């Protein structure tokens, strides 16, 4: 995980539910810059040494400390659109109820990343701010043209995330033709990808089929499903993305969200300033972000 003020976070290791140890002194022993991507890339080599060091290092309380995004500088963030059967069904006005034949890949700007408790500020360009609870997969090794049966070897770990979208911008409501959809623009405003609260290493999540996805808006449950709802599972996604985009340690795959998004509710249930968005990825982590109006 990362702790500290925005743009000044330092990598840390959670040693119990309420305490942490800094990783920068540990990395300095090996001449490695103190940045979380370096930790991710070195996990396979330093895992045992890191565990021994953490057991003797001085720990600090988490109380009152800001948690940042666990991964702050990935080269790529790739989200997968309409990758649950339930979401394909609720979006049938666009999908016709048919799942994609290959994963629909949508990129998000790295600057959209924010911490698990940071505010999400609604930009003035939108009045249709929406949520999507998803599992984020963080790559641990360079991957290109990998097969599904070998894909999990390249995974460093998992995070909870919410793929925030400005739906009116995404669908090009102000355009004169139903062609100019703006996936990247609508998903890339600052704080449109809360993640965290920590990166769980791959060995800590032994059965992805048991990972649940839930969204609460002001304590009202909106989404409630699990990863068995995925159209393309994690190995298939890694294989598909790595066939066209070489992946590096720290790169993030956002794997898909179930039915219950605000856009397809009747009436629509978009996020408003003052709302609290709670994103729960069972067995991985929980985020809590307040919605504010952007200055």
UniProtKB/TrEMBL annotation:
Residues 77-291 form the Fumarylacetoacetase-like C-terminal domain. It comes from the Bacteria. Gene3D superfamilies: 2.30.30.980, Fumarylacetoacetase-like, C-terminal domain. GO terms for molecular function: hydrolase activity. Coiled coil: none annotated. InterPro entries: FAH, Fumarylacetoacetase-like_C, Fumarylacetoacetase_C_sf. The keyword Acyltransferase does not apply. Keywords: Hydrolase, Metal-binding. This is Fumarylacetoacetate hydrolase family protein. It comes from Streptomyces cinereospinus.
